[in-house]
Amino acid sequence: MSQEIQETRKKISFRRNFINILLVVVIGISSGLFLGSWYSYNMLASSADYSGLDANLLTEDVSVVIGRSLNIKKVNDDQRKNWVSLAKSKGITPKKISGGDNTQLAIDVINNASSWTAIGTGKVETIVTQTVYSAKYYDGNTYAFESISKGIVNVASIAVYGKDNTDVTTITGNDIKETSASWNGKSEKMTTEAYVDKNGGLPSNAIPYIISSQTVINSSDVTESEVDGKKLYSYTIALHPLKSVVNYIKQVKQTSGLSDYPTFNDITIDVVIDENWNFVKFNIVENYRVVYSGLKPKCKGVLNIDFTVNQPVTLPEYKD
107, 281 in Cβ contact below 8 A? Predict the structure, then answer.
């Protein structure tokens, strides 16, 4: 075999690996909020071991959080249902509660909302830059999750799930733009159990991470501000890089062709909520690493998400 042919094959192999690495990053993004990172050290450690972690044991009953936050020894059903008004009657605001507990309480609020959206934009910087668009919708009956990344690799998909259905439909996008696509491509239907097994969670999950007292490893002070007469509360939480992603990593591994799970170095979220514990904004930074075909790409990514809660929602148009 000539030297020229060997060199050509090497270039083709490198190009394939390069594209595969981009797909690892992009597919991770489309699974939820998986972004990118800069390595925080030069030598790669061994792969993360998630085998001893049980997601069920890492979650926390919100009644425990309500009791801890509102100083109630045993939360009854009425207190569980009406804890926001109860907190206000006690003069308890988000400023008096830790960032981790505020986040769990806000998750409870959005899980029980009549409608909500979480629209995120960002980018991943690796060898090249990929733009990121992640949009989740709930109109009271149906959940939809759009995920789009555009750059050297263009990927778009939408997952649709009715709250009373037992199936999830995923559709690939055509005519891909930075924040939109035509949802008329190949569709696939799977049971909710199969979807969760593959993706780690349903489209109804507003937040892909496990948030609990076991997974929030650091939290800043909560600061209060007022914007247009509305009180807002801001803080930053840092998540455990193993425990918080036990569900989240499933999509990344199973859809990207990795031989092992990605290893997160750290995850930080700047959170803004209002006085009713409605999410207002997230600014997320994830740091992670993968090894793919012997290559070790450096990446950095951020995702900025704006929320609406209990407001009218129009789902994107799609062809089932």
Answer: no
